[in-house]
Amino acid sequence: GSMCIAYSGRCLISNYMLGRDANKGIFSNACRYKYYLVDETRPGEYYPVVEDDDGTYIMNSKDLCMIKHIPELMKSGVHSFKIEGRMKSEFYVASVVKAYREAIDAYMANPETYEFKQEWMDTLLKISHRQYHTGFFFGKTGEQNYDVSSYVRDYDIVGIVQSYDSETKEATILQKNRVFEGDEVEVLRAHTPNFNITLNEMFDVEKDVKTNVANRAHMMFKAKVETPLKEKDMLIKGKKV
């Protein structure tokens, strides 16, 4: 996840200037201050660090992604992997946990025959993220140049399944983003490959009327779904380009 250098939690500047390391939970929030460049031959003259209208990104980084290197990580002797999940959505955390859990379990089941599955990377590409890289693990750190500060957000979570009635084939869903009747959405479920369903015959639970769109925040609605769903299934949908 996030590399956390200056505009995120680790705050390298805090550690350097004050000796307060965010990795030990004592960062000083120095990353929130405004900074200027000063030339020692021109004392008193301050040069703002500007890259675009959104702010300065002197330490803007890509996101760390090591999903393709599970064998190397496991052999290194680490006891656990940390996911940078602060200020992240449930969609983000669920997707990352799902991908890494499946990859780790596959390796532990048989290290000799382990093969990386592209579906794990596909899952990570659907969440909100910056461009991915392998951080300080491979190559020279100075070779990384970043010319963008924005996130990739190609998918939205549109709902979380609350229950499913196998007799009526109706799913009760908590709305998370706008979704329409007839939309094809993808189901994100632990220990199961993602699959697609179509939301038919939508019904507004609160207003007790039929509807063709779930467009109120945390709206509870029902929809006819032929494929059985489970409580906590996440429904995601790609954004139209």
UniProtKB/TrEMBL annotation:
GO terms for molecular function: peptidase activity. It holds the Pfam family Peptidase_U32. The keyword Protease applies. The keyword Transferase does not apply. Residues 153-235 form the Peptidase family U32 C-terminal domain. InterPro entries: Peptidase_U32 (IPR001539), Peptidase_U32_C (IPR032525), RNA/ubiquinone_mod_enzymes (IPR051454). Keywords: Hydrolase, Protease. Belongs to the peptidase U32 family. This is U32 family peptidase.
